[in-house]
Structure formats: structure tokens, C-alpha cells
Design brief:
Length: 92
């Protein structure tokens, strides 16, 4: 048995569509991780116990419940990261 913050998976699943919707934002690995981390800080953690038959149904329910919040949080994170990307930090 394992505990897992399923919100993390949901954020990674949605990240690509937010990047596509915001082509002006940098899509490098650095920025993607910064955006995912920041978005997760805006969102409530959703821990699930893995290795049980029940997990999948619970996850599906969470997914529809949080979809809009997740996209909003990622978009917000993207705007913050884009305004001050870490990959430029060494050059300033
Ligand atoms: Zn970048």
C-alpha cells in the first residue's frame, strides 16, 4: 500500500493543454517543473491509497470535480513562471 497525491498526476495530465493554449510561455523542462510545482501549491492535496480496487473510481470522481480548478491553477502558475522564468536566473 502506498499514499499518493493524485493531484500531482492530474496537474501533469493537464499541463500540456495549458502549454498549448499559451504558446508564448517557455516550454522547457525547467519551466514545466516550476509551473507544475507552483500549480500544486495552489491546489489542495488529494491523497489516495493505491493498490486497492477502489482507487480508480475515486480518482475518476476527483478528476471531474477538480478539472476546472486544475486548469485555472496551472494557467495562473504559468503566468507567474513566465514573468520570471528560472532558466534566466543565472543570466540576470
Ligand atoms: Zn524555460
Amino acid at each position: 500500500m502506498q499514499l499518493k497525491n493524485y493531484m500531482e498526476d492530474l496537474v501533469w495530465q493537464r499541463l500540456d493543454e495549458v502549454m498549448v493554449a499559451n504558446p508564448q510561455a517557455c516550454n522547457c523542462e525547467n519551466c514545466r517543473y516550476d509551473i507544475a510545482a507552483l500549480a500544486l501549491n495552489f491546489l489542495p492535496p488529494r491523497y489516495v491509497v493505491t493498490d486497492t480496487g477502489e482507487t480508480y473510481t475515486r480518482i475518476k470522481a476527483l478528476e471531474s470535480q477538480f478539472n476546472i480548478d486544475i486548469v485555472t491553477a496551472i494557467t495562473h502558475a504559468l503566468q507567474i513562471v513566465s514573468s520570471k522564468p528560472h532558466h534566466y536566473a543565472g543570466k540576470n
